[in-house]
C-alpha cells in the first residue's frame, strides 16, 4: 500500500518563507486599496452545499469540484469560486442593505484541473464585487480599480484586455445553428483556432454573422478595432454593445490608461455567466491571466434577489510573482538567559519588540549553543540577560577571530 504522508495533493504546494511574504504583500497592497475605495470585507465558508453551485454547472461542472458529505449525508463542495457564495450571501442577508454594495474578499478556491497544465487546484484569490448598480460608472469603477490594483503590484508592467460579451452574443444569435455548434464556435474563437473555426463556419457561406465570427479572433488592438467591428456587423444589439464598450474605453483613455488597455472582441469565455463587459489582466512575463472579471447581472437572481453586479478576482499567487523577492527576515537580536532570569528575559524581549525590533528567545541552556545558533541564523547580536544586560556583537567577534 502506498502512503502519501510526505507529499501534497495534485495541484497544491507548500509555501515557504519568502513566498508567504510576497503573497502577503500582494494581498496587502490590493486590500488596502479596496478599503480606501469603500469596499468592505466578507468571508464565506470554505465548505458550501452543492446546491449553491447547482445552477452554475456550465461554469463549474461537478467533476471539477471537490465533493464530500456532511454528517446528514448531504452533498457538499469545497468552494470552487468566491463570487457565487457572495451572491448567496447578498441575496439572503444583505438584500435590504443600501445599494450599491461594495464588497471584497481574500480566500482560497479549489478547482480540479484534470490535465493541470501548470495550473493549481488551490488558488488564493483577492477580489471585489460591486453589487446593485448597472450604470456605466460602476463598470468604469471596476475596470479602473483593476488597473490600479495591477499597477500597485507590478508598476506599468501590466495590460488589461477588454471586451463586451454582447457583441459575440449578437453574432452567435444571428447564426442559424444548433447549440452544440455554437459552443464549438465559441471555443475556437476563445482559443484563436482559425482552421477549426473556418471549418465550422464554412456551411454558413457569406452570411454576415458568419463572416464576422470568422474575423472575430483578429479584432484585437486599440481604437481601430471599433470601426472594423461596426463594419463587420452592427445588427441584433451588436452596435449597442460596441457603443457601450467604446464609452468605457474612451473614459479609460482619459484616465491615462490607453497604453495599458487593449480591446479584444475575441474574449468570449463563460457567455452564460457574463452579461456585459468582461476583462482579463496580465503581467509581462506571465502567460496566463492574473486577473479576470466582468458584469454578471443574472447570477444573484438565482438566489432570489434581482441585483446587477460586476467584479473581478486576482490570482494572488501569480500576482506575487512580480513582487521583488525579499529574503526571509532575520531576527535582529537573540536573547539568552539562564532559567533563573527567564522572566526578566521575557520582559526584556517585550521592550525590544515594542521598539520595532525582531527578537528571538534562545531555546538553549548554555551560552555557546545560543551563540552558535545565532551565527548559523545570521543574527548579529546576542543579548545575555543576567542581573545586567550584556550585548555581544557576534559579527565583530567573528571579524576579530574571537568567535
UniProtKB/TrEMBL annotation:
**Residue ranges annotated for the Aminoacyl-transfer RNA synthetases class-II family profile domain, each copy included:** 33-403
Q: Where in the cell is it found?
A: Cytoplasm
Listed pathway(s): Amino-acid biosynthesis; L-histidine biosynthesis; L-histidine from 5-phospho-alpha-D-ribose 1-diphosphate: step 1/9
InterPro entries in the cross-refs:
aa-tRNA-synth_II (IPR006195), aa-tRNA-synth_II/BPL/LPL (IPR045864), HisRS-like_core (IPR041715), HisRS/HisZ (IPR004516), HisZ (IPR004517)
Q: Name one GO molecular function term.
A: catalytic activity, acting on a protein
State the PROSITE patterns in the record.
Answer: AA_TRNA_LIGASE_II (PS50862)
- Chief localization: cytoplasm
**Pfam families from the entry?**
tRNA-synt_His
Quick one: which residues bind L-histidine?
81-83, 111, 125, 129, 273-274
Any one GO CC term of this protein is: cytoplasm
Q: Name one GO biological process term.
A: histidyl-tRNA aminoacylation
The record's keywords, sorted A to Z, are: Amino-acid biosynthesis, Cytoplasm, Glycosyltransferase, Histidine biosynthesis, Transferase
Q: Is the keyword Protein transport assigned to this protein?
A: no
- What job does the chain carry out? Required for the first step of histidine biosynthesis. May allow the feedback regulation of ATP phosphoribosyltransferase activity by histidine.
Hey, which family's this protein in? Belongs to the class-II aminoacyl-tRNA synthetase family. HisZ subfamily.
Subunit structure, as described in the record: Heteromultimer composed of HisG and HisZ subunits.
Note on file? This function is generally fulfilled by the C-terminal part of HisG, which is missing in some bacteria such as this one.
This protein is called what?
ATP phosphoribosyltransferase regulatory subunit
According to its UniProt entry, this protein's organism is Anaerotruncus colihominis DSM 17241
